Batch of 3 targets.
Target 1
Amino acid sequence: MKRPGSAKGFSLVELMVAMTAGLIVLAAILVFTVTTARSASSNIRSTRMMQELRSSLNLIEREIRRSGFDETSYKFAGTCVSASGVCPVSNFNSLTISSGTCLVVSYDKFSNTTPGTISAGEFHGFRLKPSTTPGVIQASLAGSTAPVCTDSATSTNWVDVSNPAIIDVTNLSFTQPTTTGGCVTTSSGLWIVVQDVLVQIAGQWVDPASHQVTARSIEESVRVKNDRISKTQPSFCP
């Protein structure tokens, strides 16, 4: 009878080489997967931060643009000529930067019984929540008197606008440059002032695992639609 040939297989060395090559490929795939996941997570986090900054800025911007609105202001058109000092309509032009981190505006949301008088719900304010970490943007949106910027962090007069779980707001600043707007004098002696407000917001998010800091910032120059009207020359007008 013919003797069958002996069976052949991989040697120990060949098996070890194959396993090593497989582990290298597997490690490369694992590193690539982890890197991709971290990159995607960072992009998502960055996008959420920008969305949070943008939504806060949009709210502030909308309120600034409406500052000084009075739907019955036409009744004051002739009064301003004979007024001594500030025209009556400017009762609603109380755009006030109380500090670098707090802004107060007012406008007539609806017709009221006393035109030119600020009533309930027509004062609005924005500030950076004091002495708080992470930083939070707060708003006061329903006052009949000007909100107090120096209220404590626990004051019920202010509500949180930004989400501290998404972003730590490190800066909220309001600047009213006098050079970007303009002052115009009419033939009747009135001063019409174009008002701009530069709003700047910055924030960050710290990864609790890697302690990596992701920072973002945003700014907008906002034009107040309702010009400030005064019988006397404002101090900042040349």
Target 2
Amino acid sequence: MNDLNELPLIKSLRNVIEKVSAGIDGLELAAKIVANSPLELAGLLSSCLAEAEIWRQVADSTYCHPNGFIKLVLWDPPDAPFRLRLHIWTASSKQRARQDEQNVHGHRWNFGSAIIAGTGLQVDEFVRCDAGGEVYGSYKYRPSDPAAVARGPEYASEPSELELVGKARLERSARYTLAVGDSYSCATDMLHTVRSLSADLTATLVIQGPSLLTDAPVYRRPEQPAQAPPEPLSGAQAREIVGATIEAIRHDAGQRAATDA
């Protein structure tokens, strides 16, 4: 995806992360840049659609995540200290049901995220506790593919990748909502769930840092069913959803500009 490297938005993100770090501080700043650059982001997505080789790589990376959103990897050169992921929540009843079934989880890497279209997200954060809360099965997710340890998926595609290590009590420590133009960050020690606020298309751009851990924590309530596996999307489906996201970004940017005028 070298052709994207010269886009102003990519250059801005590279500059801030190289200047600050690929740690949580740099990723937070990068997310703020994205949140304040909706038209540049729409241009990045349009470039992905327009360039055949770039689009082939993006489309090949697209799937419906077990947590109920569509995930696309937009930019992931091997020499970069971060990668860009587009997450899209839609009105699909199957995807919305997956949001309700998602596990409380952490990540092997830090990230910053900007809400770029839609009505927004609800984030619930959790902490482990010695008493009270709810009892969960405690698991470790560790990808079996060596290449995935560094950059790969954050779901268990094989039963052996999700290792039961015991039980734990969790309580919710925070709940907050995020609207278009907001950004937030998530460190490797955070446990959370994320869901869209409505059935309207909602999208975020995730700036993902390098992998720091070999495994990530996953928690499932005793009565909670195992999550559905990821589902690939066709190239046509991916193109349609990215096109709708570009329209939503531009619409929301126009509304924000009119409000600020």
Target 3
Amino acid sequence: MAILIRGAAGHDWGWYSREDQRMHVQTVDADARSGPLKAKAWLENRGRRTFERAVSGKLSGSEWSELQSKVAADREGLEDLWIAFMIRNDWLKASLRGSSVTLTAYPGTAQSFTRTIDLREQFPGAYQHRPTWDEKPPVVEFDREHGLLTVGYDPSLDRRDHLSLREHLFVD
């Protein structure tokens, strides 16, 4: 279990290691893990940012508003942590064709969605003195420790270009 937001609406919020394949936060304090105090809010729907009550529990409208404000204040950090969580759980796949990377989130589920990233736009000029993208494509894989996409030819992940996935994966 990860605690990500402390004390919002009278609860600690986070997610568990075996979870729904959709970004969310839920009550994780001992007295609200189940029963009438349990609450959950979805933070995305097929890659679109949202804030939706999933399980209402006994939260008042002002408590939901407080949680929503806390989520909005730390949205970037929550998304980065969720992306790293997705990568560790193999809920995110990447494939390269030419200079385009296709990301598939939650493959094989109802929440599955794809995004495409053009590496020529992300790294202009970085690979222009190499063979063409089709002749010798760079290696594209995830840095599981940091939740990033790595691109390059070096065997070491640390010596490749790194790309944050937050702005590519989740949209408004």
